[in-house]
Amino acid sequence: MTFANPLGLLGLLSLPVILGIHLYHRRFPPLEIAGLHLWAVESEVRLAGRRRDRLPITLTLILELLAALFLTLIISQPRFGEVDSVTHLVAVLDDSASMSGGPPGEATFREQAIEELRQRMDEYGSDSVVTLIQSGARPVMLAGPAVPWSEAETRLSAWQPQATRHNFAPAWDLAQQVADQTGQLLFLTDHIPTTETNPAAMEIVSVGRKLENVAVTTAVWEFDAATGVGTIHLRLTNLGEKAADAQVTGRSGSTPIFEKAITISAGGKSALNLTVPGGVGKLDIDVTSPRDGLVLDNRVQLIEPQVRTVGVAVELPEGPARDLFRRSLLALPNVAVVSADAADLIVTTSDRLPAAESNAWWLGIGPLNPSEAARKAAKNLIGPYVIEKENPLLDGVTLAGVIWAGVQPVTQEATPLISVGKTPLLAQLVGTRAAAYLLNIDLEQSSLSESPDWPILISNLIELRRSDLPGLNRWNYRLGEGVRFRLYNGLVDPADESDPKPLMLVHDGGQRTLPRGSVIDILPPNTAGVYEIREGDSTVGRFAVNFEDAEESNLQLLFPGGRQSAQPNPTALYQIDPKYSWILVAATFLTLVLLLLNWWVVKSPRTAA
């Protein structure tokens, strides 16, 4: 027996105190006298003092001793053996996609890991508790902390490993915090980590096995708006030691779209380019191969890309610059020349600044001052040019050998993107509602339009504007990629503030609310499949997330085994609420009963015979 509060045993000192009081206490029972007149003369009788008598065994003495004993036990809180201590297993589950694999027709590595957990909990006893932590870039506590196995086992149905290759350290750190000094640490995986240092007190059990596997490592859907035909680009990789035969099928719902049989050499790759008609919407691609060890990387769901046309209004005066810009736009896909009211991008002279309320992008082309005197005073430069390479507008722009003509002083407040010394040549205006760029140049005299940098610069500008249009910019993602899209143009939400429509992300029957804003970022989804963005009852867009990780699909490095903990702690037990707490409650109740009974005995009058 142990005591949670040993100092409470000092209450046992009350027992001899009670005995001493009863030993020296002299009681004079009240006497009823019939004649009060016989006591007319008062007399004081002095006694010799208290003396020790034989201890009277009375009901009051017994009640007071029992009450003091019960109170002492309640305060000291006795513990009988280890009835309130159980084994606490803190298990980290490897959420890597390879854990979903396994030999064809046999239990998967995930199922073997669950069976290992079940056997451990059977050994520890039915009273033991467990905490389950799922690894990942953001570890998740799947069950716990410290819950019975019956509860944790039901939570395991939600564990479907699909994560790409990731670091286990965050999950290990969380497990150590939960375990502290009272938990047994266990890591269930399909391979023994070699490059990471696991906690010294953690035991590692691997249930993996070396397997053959064929995986889809790249899946891209391109759509040509001019022809109305799409092209699927697939790359299949044989991550095995033997040549593999594979059957590739594509369906839209129940309608077959294509079917192809291929053979991939050992460790080799095979690229497929498959034509699909427009208007399919969604495509399910399946790859089947004998001896395939992982099904997750054999299935791909793709959403058909949508045509996002950029409307450009060219408001340059008639002349070579206007013709040059129009020819450049004709060479770009999905670009339409429209009026300024319907334009996403307005190209005009630099003296016509963008309207304050406009959401359209703006490109102003020099000369900044069109007067004859200002044009004669302008400078012609040949570099060296300082280019802001981190800006995507200048991706691929080098300006090698370019003569930049017609450079004039810039009076507007702007951020230089291309400059010579302190003179901006291409700059982004500051304080405008939409993106506005100023091109300090005279195109009729400059050689920029004749260099390879001109079509690159214009293409970058168009694609940047296209990516900033409302709606999704991409429709197919890999697991681990974040999703960003624009909900509306400008900074003011056009939704009715009196009845705002909720923005929801829907997937596989579940949904979660997204915060409203002009630009919305969705954290990388951790489950493959098709996701839908809904605003009220309308659909904003759909996108697909697929598992494409050649490193994780490689099952050649998996093997069974284990690694014992370097610092085992078999005696550490987890304290739970005492199962005999009802005894303390009963003792408290009995103590109160004894005190009340003792009070009644002491206060009850005694009748003399």
UniProtKB/TrEMBL annotation:
Aerotolerance regulator N-terminal domain boundaries: 1-78
Stretches of the chain forming a coiled coil according to its record: none
Transmembrane region(s): 6-24, 55-75, 580-602
Pfam families with a match to the protein in the record: BatA
Entry keywords, A to Z: Membrane, Transmembrane, Transmembrane helix
InterPro entries: Aerotolerance_reg_N (IPR024163)
Name this polypeptide is given: Aerotolerance regulator N-terminal domain-containing protein
Organism placement in taxonomy: Bacteria, Pseudomonadati, Planctomycetota, Planctomycetia, Planctomycetales
